[in-house]
Amino acid sequence: MCGIVGYVGDNNAQDFLISGLKRLEYRGYDSAGIVTINDDGKATLIRAKGKISNLEERLARKKRDDKIGIGHTRWATHGEPSEANAHPHRAGKLYLVHNGIIENYKELKEHLKEHEFKSETDSEVLAALINSFYGDGKYPLANAVVQALKLAKGTYGIAVISEDNPNEIVVARSGSPLVIGIGDGATLIASDASALVGHTKRAIYLNDGEVARVTKNSVDIKTLNAEPVSAKVEEIETNLAAIQKGGYEHFLLKEIMEQPESLMETLRGRVNIKDGTVRLGGPGLSEAELRKIKHLIIVGCGTAYHAGLLAAYYIEKFTPEITVEVVIASEYRYRQAYVPEDSVALIVSQSGETADTLACLREIKKQGVKTIGIVNAIGSTIAREVDGGTYVHVGPEISVASTKAFTSQVIAMVMFGLTIAEAKGVRNTIIRPYVEEIFKLPNEIREVLGAYQNTIKMEAKKYAEYEHAIYLGRDTAYPTAMEGALKLKEVSYIDANAYAFGELKHGPLALIDDRFFVMAFLPKGELYEKAVSNTQEVLARGGHVIAVTNEDSFDLPVENVIKITTSMEIFTPILMNLISQLFAYYVTVAKGLNVDQPRNLAKSVTVE
Ligand code: M6R
Fold first, then answer.
1. Which of 248, 212, 58 minimizes the C-alpha distance to 18?
2. Domain spanning 249-426: which superfamily?
3. Which of 104, 195, 289, 553 has its CA 20 to 30 A from that of 516?
């Protein structure tokens, strides 16, 4: 989704802006632009449709040594991707970059007849509105921004500069993140701390409803009501290695392969293998509060939602006294759902910025329900607004397709469930096998990735020509199938859908023909034989089946079988999901598509 950068300091602003925008590329965008202003107030504005490399080509002819500037990557919401719609937008002597959506932009535009609009964007309306207060520049820029924002409805993270004062940037946020980096002889702005890595380790995360006037040596924060805010400087934990490909061709492969380590980070200090128990400090619930829980609501979108579905299957198995409801955030936020007493909500988000998930969090909080974040991005909005939480600590996930976050989200939620179970007095003989498998899981993941990467690389090529795929599973393998299908469709553009095996006969079986391949997940266990029978039904209709199983005796005449050797009994679906991840990756590579930034998608979906 859109990205913002800004620079005011002693060095070349263009250099920082371009390198910062490149860091934000992973979020997804369709145009980009920067503006810098020299000491005499002369601005250099460069914008281009498409990749940042297009912007760099134009920049080559407009190199400047200006010391202040702002930049943006745009993911189109209002108006097509084009140079005119790209940010920064100009109004008078002001330039603005904006993330988010100004919902009442049409109404505001009606009153801005003086401004000659050059784009179709809501952002230009905001620029013009600020300019209408700023006038001839005698009114302080920060005050003009505040006046305008009081009229704007919607979400925003903005940065504004003026030709009149090439020493200050005014930034503000409401529902769209903004970070201020405290550098050496410079102050940096970004919508995502990853753009600041390598420049500074010290950052201030702006809160909703705050406006800051930033110079190279100062940061002055106030609320929209002009109350001063004392800034809290926090440390950026990410390092450069974490946001580089580290020898891999794509971030997606790097992130799949680093799951043994990223899961270890999720588990660090939280698993007591001697006692067969887990400890989570973050949720901040007392034993008594844990014991009282009767109902869990798990809220997320996309992969985070699938992680919730899988975790729910597990939690129900070892904590029979509670019910678990997993909901899609974009639906739940508009439902008139009654949250039963003694509920706790798990808010699951890698980025911690997903607009729908954030909206649910706020709705649920209004009902007085305790909210616990299962979040990756440290300092993100969701992480800061929940009542308590467990960071999954998988490090930056750059590829749009979420992989390592999924694995750790599932396990973090299972650990939370185990904490409830312990408090409720569930026997240790029931809990211990889960804890033991969790403890062994990073190593098992390492083995599966090592053992099957090459096989899948070879096999996946054969499926690159298909246009349709069906993923099948039951019980814990059902959410695994759903996540596998999502991964395949989002990166390879193969139309992939998932069904519960038992649902086949109720409709989807009619689809099976030569245009489809079928990925069937058959973990050992109570329902294995039933899944085998369902697979036979597919084979009988000429389906091209790839079976993924850990059952040695599996001998159906499928097109391909991936037999996983593992000692896991409970978390086999997580290992099977690794196969799906690698499969989606290699199919996409075989098709020659953009693996890390699939078309039309953004990493962090900060608009509704
Ligand atoms: O940052 P979040 O976890 O809140 O993101 C939720 C979804 O947008 C995300 O998981 C999306 O489905 C991924 N692109 C899937 O790979």
1. 58
2. Glucose-6-phosphate isomerase like protein; domain 1 (3.40.50.10490)
3. 553
